[in-house]
Amino acid sequence: MSAIDATDLRAARPGISLAEPGDFLALLKPRVMSLVILTAVTGYLAAPGHMHPVLGFVSLLAIALGAGGSGALNMWYDADIDRVMKRTAGRPVPSGRVSAGGALAFGLSLSILSVILLGLASNWFAAAFLAFTIAFYAVFYTMGLKRRTAQNIVIGGAAGAFPPMVAWAAVTGGVSLESFVLFLIIFLWTPPHFWALALFKMQDYGAAGIPMLPNVAGERSTRRHIFAYTLLLVPVGVLPYVLGFGGPVYGVVSLALGLDFIRRAFLVLRMPDRDPAMVPAKKLFGFSIVYLFALFSILLIERVVALWMV
């Protein structure tokens, strides 16, 4: 059913629910959740210590539910701007398939459940860390800063970078330098990833009134920021090998992909102003996803192999 049909039907019969199970799954932002799961599992397995497998599974499930709950709260609050933007107009709330109240209740329920579940399965420090992460994303970023500053992505990126630290805390009861490095990789990756997207989605963000960096500071400044953050990211991406919790395969791959990341960011830096095709930015955006998933996947595989050989 199209967004227009859904809106018309809801207007004609305001009590009707048009939601299907897939709509509530969409509220969880499954693509974002897949990243959260990957990074959380990596943090969980990289952490020193041991948890009962069942409690470990429940802890990781709680972190995933927390990410999904905060995603639903984000969609609830951002329904007005999602309705304006082409790439988000079909989401469950702006399309009318899920009511705003339904999305809010769903997001709050999952968020509260996730925190309680993590506290019972692991420890209350990790649970408090998860609660802080949810509040940081849903309140501080979504409600507070997303519509007010061009640095919204930098600040909001912290929320997406916390899951490996939360998982580490679930195992150890605290955090460490290694877990902070995992956080820092995601944190520094977020700006070049999303600013590359913002370069070729400027009209969408402009129509919604979101002060993304290209709309506020211009394309040239954005390209410089992308290159600068990439230069910061690449050496940090190699740190797990330097610190000894990433193996030689990770070291080689992280360096090779990092150098390619710099090359691609340089091509974006050299783009002409108002390039209608934005090919380098689109390619960088796609590559950035491969880069992050590759780094955490290799760390995860190396850790699984190491545990299997013990």
Automatic annotation (TrEMBL):
<feature type="transmembrane region" description="Helical">
    <location>
        <begin position="226"/>
        <end position="243"/>
    </location>
</feature>
<dbReference type="GO" id="GO:0008495">
    <property type="term" value="F:protoheme IX farnesyltransferase activity"/>
</dbReference>
<keyword id="KW-0350">Heme biosynthesis</keyword>
<feature type="transmembrane region" description="Helical">
    <location>
        <begin position="180"/>
        <end position="200"/>
    </location>
</feature>
<dbReference type="Pfam" id="PF01040">
    <property type="entry name" value="UbiA"/>
</dbReference>
<comment type="pathway">
    <text>Porphyrin-containing compound metabolism; heme O biosynthesis; heme O from protoheme: step 1/1.</text>
</comment>
<comment type="function">
    <text>Converts heme B (protoheme IX) to heme O by substitution of the vinyl group on carbon 2 of heme B porphyrin ring with a hydroxyethyl farnesyl side group.</text>
</comment>
<keyword id="KW-0472">Membrane</keyword>
<keyword id="KW-0808">Transferase</keyword>
<feature type="transmembrane region" description="Helical">
    <location>
        <begin position="32"/>
        <end position="51"/>
    </location>
</feature>
<dbReference type="InterPro" id="IPR030470">
    <property type="entry name" value="UbiA_prenylTrfase_CS"/>
</dbReference>
<dbReference type="GO" id="GO:0048034">
    <property type="term" value="P:heme O biosynthetic process"/>
</dbReference>
<feature type="transmembrane region" description="Helical">
    <location>
        <begin position="153"/>
        <end position="174"/>
    </location>
</feature>
<dbReference type="InterPro" id="IPR006369">
    <property type="entry name" value="Protohaem_IX_farnesylTrfase"/>
</dbReference>
<protein>
    <recommendedName>
        <fullName>Protoheme IX farnesyltransferase</fullName>
        <ecNumber>2.5.1.141</ecNumber>
    </recommendedName>
</protein>
<comment type="similarity">
    <text>Belongs to the UbiA prenyltransferase family. Protoheme IX farnesyltransferase subfamily.</text>
</comment>
<dbReference type="InterPro" id="IPR044878">
    <property type="entry name" value="UbiA_sf"/>
</dbReference>
<keyword id="KW-1003">Cell membrane</keyword>
<keyword id="KW-1133">Transmembrane helix</keyword>
<feature type="transmembrane region" description="Helical">
    <location>
        <begin position="124"/>
        <end position="141"/>
    </location>
</feature>
<dbReference type="GO" id="GO:0005886">
    <property type="term" value="C:plasma membrane"/>
</dbReference>
<keyword id="KW-0812">Transmembrane</keyword>
<feature type="transmembrane region" description="Helical">
    <location>
        <begin position="289"/>
        <end position="309"/>
    </location>
</feature>
<dbReference type="InterPro" id="IPR000537">
    <property type="entry name" value="UbiA_prenyltransferase"/>
</dbReference>
<feature type="transmembrane region" description="Helical">
    <location>
        <begin position="57"/>
        <end position="77"/>
    </location>
</feature>
<feature type="transmembrane region" description="Helical">
    <location>
        <begin position="98"/>
        <end position="118"/>
    </location>
</feature>
